[in-house]
Design a protein that fits this description.
The protein is of the alpha/beta class. 43% of the residues lie in helices and 16% in strands. The protein binds pyridoxal-5'-phosphate.
Length: 389
């Protein structure tokens, strides 16, 4: 038996705020009627503000994986060469999907502790004199490692090489949490989903589309039906969808967008940065290692912590769950058992974080993981130092 609320401190799905829950407590409505039309128009417009674009954003009833597929099948052809980077588990899964869909993927290898090296992208594109590479596809926030890649610098590297490749970016765990500017950063397709920074339940996938990506979708011939942008954009122009949309989730999306815009996107991003910095202070005070090795690439969304040699991160997470009713993120694929991940995204605030870090610290003691005490206290000091006075 547990009392009180469950602490869902995984890097998504993130907790759904009560305000969003209440907004979804609505009867299901006719998705071809006037009330839906208003909702459809409002959310499709609101999404543009969150992605920071004036172009179209397509909303699918899907998980993020569906939106990955949409980005590929709309813009590329079977046999096209794409450049991807092994930043971690999710970059590897997207690469596997691209390969299955018939693309020729050049995968720059990585050690899962750093983000995309913009210079390496620029250098590879500069060598591609015959312009064989049709797209660069990268993950903005690698959820498996807690490393955020520098998308604006990647764009500059592509431009510096004077190369026409499309830029496809996965913001599945960064949108609404880490600074992101689809249009200003010259991204062609931004992929995202509902259950992380947007603070919604799982079930919506998004693609924000540049004019260049839209033009590519009109001239390419990869087979697609459900994911076809053209089919979606026609009814979207009047607020409708070509098939039954996830109506209830769209009520939640409208509320979540309102919450993000009320707080102000830059304040949302600053809050995430402050919480992340406080978390790192805690990890450093415990004497544990942060997986991310490049301070410029520390994730504002989550922190992955390396377990000391000889200790199993999953056994530790079990102790935390059973004693403190808190879920921490597991290490994925090659990091299984080696790291645990602390999510600090979405509606997380100072006191939520302090509850979480207290649970992490007490769990370290209960699970006999070697560490120094004082991490939670260090996080409090960091939060005080960064508080607006
Ligand atoms: N990309 C990233 C960066 C993710 O974190 C995830 C899921 O956590 C995915 C892709 C896959 O998204 P989904 O599980 O919603 O299909």
């Amino acid at each position: 038996m547990t009392t009180g609320r469950h602490f869902l401190q995984i890097p998504g799905p993130s907790p759904v705020p009560e305000r969003v829950m209440r907004a979804m407590d609505m009867p299901v409505l006719d998705h071809r009627g006037p009330e839906f039309q208003r909702l459809g128009q409002e959310v499709l417009e609101g999404c543009k503000a969150v992605f920071q674009t004036r172009g179209p954003v397509v909303v699918y009833p899907s998980s993020g994986t569906g939106a990955w597929e949409s980005a590929i099948v709309n813009t590329l052809n079977v046999g096209d060469k794409v450049l991807m980077v092994e930043t971690g588990h999710f970059a590897t899964l997207w690469k596997n999907m691209a390969t299955k869909l018939g693309l020729e993927v050049e995968f720059i290898s990585g050690d899962w502790r750093r983000g995309v090296n913009p210079e390496a992208i620029g250098a590879r594109l500069a060598e591609d004199k015959e312009l064989k590479i049709k797209a660069v596809a990268v993950v903005h926030n690698e959820t498996s490692t807690g490393v955020t890649s520098r998308i604006a610098e990647i764009r500059r590297a592509i431009d510096g090489a004077n190369h026409p490749a499309l830029l496809l970016v996965d913001t599945i765990s960064s949108l609404g949490s880490a600074e992101y500017k689809h249009e200003e950063w010259g991204v062609d397709v931004t992929v995202s989903c509902s259950q992380k920074g947007l603070m919604l339940p799982p079930g919506l996938g998004f693609t924000a589309i540049s004019e260049k990506a839209l033009a590519a979708s009109r001239s390419n011939n990869m087979r697609r039906s459900y994911w076809d942008w053209e089919e979606m954009l026609k009814p979207n122009a009047t607020g409708f969808f070509p098939y039954t949309p996830a109506t209830t989730l769209l009520y939640g999306l409208k509320e979540a967008i309102a919450m993000l815009l009320e707080e102000g996107l830059s304040n949302v991003f600053d809050r995430h940065k402050r919480l992340a910095a406080a978390t790192r202070s805690a990890v450093q005070a415990w004497g544990l290692e942060i997986l991310c090795q490049e301070p410029l690439e520390y994730s504002p969304v989550l922190t992955a912590v390396v377990m000391p040699e000889g200790h199993d991160a999953d056994a530790y997470r079990k102790v935390v769950l059973e004693n403190f009713n808190m879920s921490l993120g597991a290490g994925l694929s090659k990091l299984a058992g080696k790291v645990f991940r602390i999510g600090h995204l979405g509606e997380c605030n100072e006191l939520t974080l302090m509850g979480a870090l207290s649970g992490v610290e007490m769990g370290l003691t209960l699970a006999d993981v070697p560490h120094q005490t004082g991490g939670a206290a260090a996080a409090m000091r960091a939060l005080l130092d960064s508080a607006a006075r």
